[in-house]
What we know:
- The chain is an alpha/beta fold and 402 residues long.
- The protein folds into 2 domains: 14-214 and 338-398, Rossmann fold; 242-246 and 252-323, formyl-coa transferase, domain 3.
- 37% of the residues lie in helices and 14% in strands.
- The chain has 18 helices and 11 strands.
- The strands form 3 sheets. The protein has a 6-stranded parallel β-sheet, with helices on both faces. It has a 3-stranded antiparallel β-sheet with strand order 7-8-9, covered by helices on one side. A two-stranded antiparallel ribbon has the order 10-11.
- A hairpin with a 5-residue loop joins β7 and β8 (252-256).
- The radius of gyration is 25 Å and the shape is elongated.
Amino acid sequence: MSSTNRPRPLDGIKVIEVGQLLAGPWAGTMLAYFGAEVIKVEPPGDGDPIRGWRILDETGTAYWWRSLARNKKSVTANLRTEEGRDLVRRLMNNADVVIENFKPGSMEKWGLGPEDLATTNSDLIFARISGYGQTGPNSTKPGYASVTEAYSGFRHVNGFPGDVPVRPNLSIGDTISGIHAFMGILLALLERNQDRGTGGQVVDVALYESMFNLMEGVVPEFSGGGVIREPSGSTLTGIVPTNTYLCGDGKHVVIGANGDSIFIRLMEAMQKSEIAEDPRYATNAGRVEHQEFIDGTIAIWTKAHPAHEVIRLLEAAQVPVGPLYNVADMMGDPHYQARGLFEEVQVNGAPLAIPAISPKLSATPGKTDWAGGPVGTHTDEVLLSHGYTEAEIVALRDKGAV
């Protein structure tokens, strides 16, 4: 855990996070890391479902939670009660940003939509994350990341030709959407600070659109060339060589030698000067035509050497190469350590490593102040700071509102 007291770029910005699971909370985590006061509203009782997902510690809390809820103040509010909705409305009226990732229409049903708050907090930036966006014929459909990754076209290009499209073992659609929300919120804050009378605005993030943003040249290639990009396994269509290769010790390396001069250096490092000098392979177009031969030649060579030797030889030749890491490899790697990619927090009296968050800022870096804690840890503190009395808080608890 960082001990620096340097300022952070979002110091003084107050955020109310009324989402759960991953997309909205990840945007909130990034805002909190870079200095915003993030008040996370959770339902009383079990709170956000991610608290109980995947690998749990001895308290029954997900290790994941410690990272995702870092730097956030947990406040409980039952949005099924009028008192709970009034509480959240009061928090929102004193906020700069609201983040929500419920099904479109839910916030309006509770009287907590952007139009409901426009007259009382005209400068509020209201970030909304949903599967298909707030408008359009699909807007009311439930949209989990798994489904919207497929709808975006992203899943189509993953996997091997003729096989079932695959997904990485991550909720990438949620995380990418959270980053898009973070970006949209920062843009809206920048616009508001221009003092041009714009005030607050809605940031509308759709999971499928966030993944669609990753699709590079897929649209113009189809529009202009009539080509549908297909899955290509561990290669990249039309760029050779760039692939994953098995080494003699059973480990894999990734080699990216698709630049013309880099390809020559690769072949020379492999002691294949005759291929390096062959005009058929001098350009990417020629290498694409002979991809099977080139990839097969490289695969034979890597299979004859352990991974560390392949990496040593190619790094000496200035050919882009790297190992295929798992998390244990990452945490043992000196470069990861030197770049400060792990932070340590105390949980139940024991140290726990969590990932630092990029990007790195030289003058106003982000940091982790505390790990995510129990449900409602900060309810009293936050409500007292928003004008509630201790007696009123007791009454709210009696009514099941918090």
